[in-house]
Amino acid sequence: MAEVAHWLRQSRHLSGLTYEQLVRATGFSRGSLHRAASGWRSPWPVVKAFTHACGTDVGTARKSWLKAKAALEGTDQVPDVIAVGHVGTFDELRVAMGYLRVLAGRPSLRELVGRSGGRLTRSTLASVLNGTSHPRRELVAAFVDVVGVGGDEAAGWAAAWDRAQAHLRSAREATAPMEPLAVVPSPALLSVLGDLPLSDWAAVAELVDVVRKGGEVGVPASVSVDFQRSGTVPEPDTITISCPGTSIDRETIQQLFRISWAGRPQEQSKFGASFLVACLRLGSRITLRTAHRHEPAWTVFTLDLASLTSGTSWRIPIGAEPKTEAGQQGARITIEALRTVWSDGMQQRLRRHLGDVFSYVLREQRLQLTVSESVVAPRMPCIWGGNRFVQRRGQDISAVQKLDVVLATQYRCRDCRRTSPLGSSFCPQCQGTRLEWTEHRVWGWLGVQRYLHQRDYGIDFYRNGRKILVRDKRLFSFSEDPEHAVVEYPVDSPAKGRLVGEIHCDHVPVNFTHTAFDYDSPEWRGVVHAIRGPGPLAARRAQKLGFAPNTSALATLFDAFRRNDPGLRYLIPGDGVRALHQVAADWAKRFHEGDPAYQSDKVWYDAALSHDTSGPAATAPADHRIDLANLDPEDLCDLVHRLYMNQHDPTEGPRELIGPGATATVFRDRPRSGERWVLQTRRGQYVVPPETVHALAGQMLDVQATRGILVTTSWFEASSHAFAARSGNIDLVDGRALKALLREHLGIEALLRLKRTPPGWNTGDAV
Predict the structure, then answer these.
(1) pLDDT of residue 289
(2) Quick one: which of 224, 203, 202 has its CA closest to 332?
């Protein structure tokens, strides 16, 4: 059953379902499902329903369950301890009462009735124990008292009856016919929409997004955002968003101003409640003026929140205004009675935000945007060119990783926007036949910024040309439990980042304000898997958790550029002595200001090259020895692994060597005894704490290893050596000994640039 439980836990993790969702999907109680996933003996219907709800292979689950059933044949099916706290239904309560009767010595029904003093009757007790009827609470209390259960344990049986009764009641309510509930909304609800959490610049971005989508396909949209002042106040009291090439029909106007949001976001039309929320977030009087080229008049729609909330009707008339010239078209949204004072500084920040959010379509010249008659420039990524690369383990790793993956190909209904598998002849939602072919495609790039920053790094996620997430960092964390994620990047000092990217995922559903994705959706989980893979970014952590080596685009960049050491090895500008992090950030400011001298990465590259070819390190005699204390941790692991493979041949080495690195080495001609060693490395400048040695001993017990080896570039305390001597099977190799072993077995000369000379070492031991 442990194998069955492992399968069920894996299935639930892959599906992302909670136990509450599984209860609704399967009809079984939470206790039954939790026991099955914890290794309890569980009937096949529970295991089958659990697996089917998670969407995993029922046949595989059936094989594991039959194997468990065969192993249990002939064993006592009555548990030593009855987990009454997990009982949640009357069927489970009946089984638990039967177990309790067996543990009490299998008394007959006549004997139980006699002990009860008239509280139990034979016919009622028999119908309860054989499942014909459900017990009353008083019968359960009398039964457990008769068999000798009392105190807190008896209270647990009473609580089990309460849970079973609640489950029965909810099941009856779920199958009862539903009566319609009449809901009459109030116009005052509109004022609440303006209080929803949405920034001012995001509200303007939403309106820009609406008007730019109404133009002709393939023709760049030209959108302007203008602020008008009246003669009585110095601040702007009107915002106008207009696009001369856009026209909005009457049906679309109804979609824009309708408060409606049902079903999954990707099943809605391209307009939802976000437009109305954005308008009311900016002001309380909204006027939409639009017309097609062939129409004789402008369509005018005005929503005045003050007058609407004072009335009782939701009906708002749509007016018409004659055109002054034939062939005029366009769309203009005017918002008055503003909630925010838009100063010149705020308009400048709005221009910067819009240039960031619409960066891609502005760069591709699919959109021309102005704010107060000033052109909005796209925010350009300040990254290393795709021709820049570093070498890792004999491979060239480019500073730009391209990504283009099709996750799925489906049909989408043009009427209700519901997706269905290829080959479908009609939509399963609305039965319509207007199906269009669509791809779930993830494309874009990941790259390395030319400078480090505490906040200005992360991945931009686009949907239909607009950024939904700006420099998001959630993919830099990992955990098998999403509620306890561990930050994997940045890991090096200073604690600033430079990994960036632009990812387009038009198929992923978003929230109604278009400020976040639906992170619980399978579409979003597919995007995460395509970008960063299923496991941790760091190879050693992936190995520890049982994942295969991560070869995703993000893991590749992480492995090559996670360190911030100056020079061309990590593409970090330096002055020959130290990294020029602040100088590189100052150059980035000049890049974003449009300085032509800083648009290419030449200035940054020359500084990284200069660090390697000038300064004290370059003027001193060439020293080609490996500096163990400053070697990359992954490279140090590979070096130590190679050392021990050369040091021991198959006749004297371990049958199995666990670590370091991503693989275990097995010698198959070794005898079964004394077969497994554990090898660990620790790069550092200071003494290794005794707790690290104790942890090695614990790992040896976990994997039943006969020998443990801990290799460090620094040194150990006397207490650590004493502990290793008492154990008799732990070898401690300090930096001085490591140098000697590398020289003897691999012919490699190494040095140790430690910040202090360890106790008992000579000055020449480290150089």
Answers:
(1) 87
(2) 224
